[in-house]
Write a structure and sequence with these properties.
With 666 residues, this protein is of the alpha/beta class. It folds into 4 domains: 103 residues, Phosphorylase Kinase, domain 1 (2-Layer Sandwich), CATH 3.30.200.20; 206 residues, Orthogonal Bundle (Transferase(Phosphotransferase), domain 1), CATH 1.10.510; 180 residues, Rossmann fold; 42 residues, no CATH class. The chain contains 24 helices and 18 strands. The strands form 5 sheets. Strands 1-2-3-4-6-5 form a 6-stranded antiparallel beta sheet, with helices on one face. α2 packs antiparallel against α5 and α2 packs across α8. It is flat.
Length: 666
């Protein structure tokens, strides 16, 4: 952690208690000093008991009691905020009268590294970073804690891309019942200088440590001592400043600096709109969101971190909007998927899920285990394969995706994924023996799967997504509870660390979610990563109907056609497969000379409902009525009693007919 201290001044105040490399304090062996903060030094150390590296923050022993109390409040405050986007505190102790905090050691860089030389970030990436910060703030605010010093130095980006909020050293504890040390250490009792004192320099204590409760560039009007109570809305202001800085490359009040920023406290002077300096591609809606963060009357700002997060999420991550994508289609290739599910290669045809993709993109950064939950036919598999996976690969990072289905033998499915990564067999017999041994290894050592995948990710310098499609098969196809438990244990071991380059995403029908509760350990981990995928909105359905045709150079002859399709689809459960099939049939009947999808063709096929019904009747008639019994038997074998798809070997289906090749032909 705190690699931003590398290269900073390494002078240590000379005290008898000053630690140095090689010294052992309890189970911690000091390795080297990596920086010096306002109240002490930070050491990289080795935890000899648990075999891990940690960061230890020491308070200088000559500090006064007030600062000591504040130091301890930082530890207590941060420890109360247990969240993937907040640095983890392992222990608080004391060495030769100097208190210290043991924290997780992070490798990466502070956000400051991305803002040097007035650098700008793509607005999607800036929003993505701040969405993670907002999740951390939501956790802190729920605990009654305000950070009060959000700035690039206190936001850390790990090598795996996880965002960590640091340094609650001046956080204000708002909860009732705080201890005297917390109340005093939170600095609530320290008098703030007035705007006049800041502007004129008449406050002689201005530069003393602990007087300014914040960093001038990121301080809200209420932090400038105008008599307004400081609460969580102070952090909302700082988020607005940070977003403006990341997207526009400068502070909203640039070129003002230092005490000139006192104008922040002048309520009659509104902050400049981000529109004045935003790049041309920044959506106006995003500008309005940021501007609302920077309203000087705090009652007019976004009223919670969660509210602001929900507003920002659609703008986060890689560009996922269908209107920005194009796909080269083959001659006469349909831009619709028909009855086939979308695959990664169909990303250019996948429309109507922009908001959901953006939301999933921001969450998967910080959540190693996620489940896309939805009703049958809502498009869970297509969402991940053609939506999420391509968006990850467009994000500028290198991602590899491994797709599995549990099937009848889920551990074999996992073994098949990693066998090519560890294979040593030279013939088929050895390969089969190797697979059996690998299955047994996974059964006995669930962590082996994660070990192999992490090695692959590190070796190839990439991130890795394991997508377990149709997770409900674990309950409909696998009867052995021990097999199910071993399978989920393997997945848990892959997704055990938010800073790891590995991610696991499941897709599961919502009516099977209660079955996951059979494994209390796994469901406790999964609960934090549930992503509920509902039916697309009306606008989303419209995009899915209209935009693929426009991408292919066609358009609908009449708005009435689209409106009628929407009216039917909005009231139909599992509407997406029906939409794709009806749109495909309409495409087949297109007017190529006028490049139109005509209303007459739509009426002739019987609308949305008639398209599938007439197609089914035609298929059955073409097969012949004498085949109806065999067709019914095959279809029943392909569905489980829980109405899910069943995986059945073709050899088993062939047994349904005495005629050689008949099942294959059907």
């Amino acid at each position: 952690m705190w690699d931003q201290f590398e290269g900073a001044s390494t002078a240590v105040h000379a005290t008898a208690a000053a630690p140095h490399p090689g010294v052992r304090i309890n189970q911690y062996e000091m390795i080297k000093m990596i920086g010096e903060g306002g109240m002490g030094t930070v050491f990289l150390a080795r935890d000899l008991r648990l075999g891990r590296r940690v960061a230890i923050k020491f308070l200088q022993s000559n500090q006064n009691k007030e600062l000591t109390d504040r130091f301890l409040v930082e530890a207590r405050t941060t420890a109360r905020c247990q969240h993937d986007n907040i640095v983890v505190i392992y222990e608080v102790g004391e060495h030769s009268s100097s208190p210290y905090i043991v924290l997780e050691f992070l490798t990466g860089k502070p956000l400051t590294a991305l803002t040097e030389n007035s650098a700008k970030l793509p607005y999607q990436r800036a929003v993505e970073i701040m969405c993670s910060v907002l999740r951390a703030l939501a956790c802190a605010h729920d605990q009654g804690i305000v950070h009060r010093d959000l700035k690039p130095d206190n936001i850390f980006i790990t090598e795996a891309g996880t965002i960590k909020v640091l340094d609650f050293g001046i956080a204000k504890v708002l909860q009732q019942g705080a201890s005297p040390a917390e109340s005093k250490g939170s600095a609530a009792a320290i008098r703030m200088p007035s705007p006049l004192e800041l502007a004129t320099g008449t406050n002689t204590n201005l530069t003393r440590a602990g007087t300014i409760m914040g960093t001038l560039k990121y301080m809200s009007p209420e932090q400038w001592g105008i008599g307004i109570e400081i609460d969580h809305l102070t952090d909302i202001w700082a988020v607005g400043i940070l977003l403006h800085r990341l997207i526009c490359g400068r502070h909203p009040l640039h070129p003002l600096d230092g005490n000139q920023l006192v104008v922040t406290a002048m309520l009659e002077l509104p902050m400049p709109s981000m529109q004045e300096s935003a790049p041309i591609d920044v959506p106006r809606e995003l500008v309005q969101i940021v501007d609302r963060c920077l309203l000087k009357l705090k009652e007019q700002r976004w009223q919670s971190a969660g509210e602001l997060l929900a507003a920002l999420e659609p703008f986060a991550g890689a560009v996922a909007g269908g209107h920005t994508r194009t796909q080269a289609l083959q001659i006469d290739e349909s831009p619709y998927a028909g009855l086939s599910s979308f695959q990664e290669g169909d990303a250019g045809k996948f429309f109507g899920r922009n908001r959901e993709i953006a939301s999933m993109m921001t969450r998967i950064r910080d959540q190693p285990l996620m489940a896309v939950v939805g009703s049958s036919g809502v498009g869970k598999s297509s969402f991940v394969r053609a939506g999420l996976v391509p968006a990850l690969k467009r994000s500028g990072e290198t991602w590899e995706t491994l797709v599995i289905r549990p099937g009848r033998k889920p551990l074999e499915s996992l073994a098949a994924v990693i066998q090519p990564m560890v294979a040593t067999a030279v013939n088929l017999s050895d390969e089969l023996d190797e697979q059996k041994k690998l299955v047994e290894t996974l059964r006995k050592e669930p962590g082996h799967l994660g070990h192999v995948l992490r090695g692959r990710a590190r070796r190839d310098n990439r991130r890795l997504l394991v997508f377990v499609d149709q997770f409900e098969e674990l309950y409909t196809q696998t009867a052995d509870p021990a097999e199910r438990a071993a399978f989920t244990a393997c997945l848990s071991a892959v997704a055990d660390d938010a800073t790891s380059p590995l991610r696991v995403v499941l897709s599961i029908r919502s009516d099977f979610l209660d079955r996951v509760a059979e494994d209390q350990r796994f469901v406790a981990e999964l609960t934090q990563g549930l992503f509920f995928l509902g039916p697309p909105s009306r606008d989303g359905l419209r995009e899915a109907i209209v935009q693929p045709a426009e991408m292919a150079g066609f358009r609908f002859e009449s708005p009435e056609t689209v409106d009628d399709m929407l009216a039917h689809l909005e009231t139909t459960p599992g509407a997406l497969p029906l939409l794709q099939f009806a749109a495909t049939k309409l495409w087949d009947a297109r007017d190529t000379s006028r490049k139109m999808l005509t209303h007459a063709s739509y009426a002739a096929m019987g609308g949305v409902a008639g398209a599938l019904a007439s197609h089914a009747d035609r298929v059955v008639n073409d097969l012949g009525g004498h085949k109806a019994g065999l067709i019914r038997a095959i279809l029943l074998r392909l569905v489980t009693p829980e109405r899910t798809r069943a995986i059945v070997p073709m050899a088993e289906l062939r047994e349904l007919s005495r005629e050689v090749g008949e099942v294959q032909r059907l």
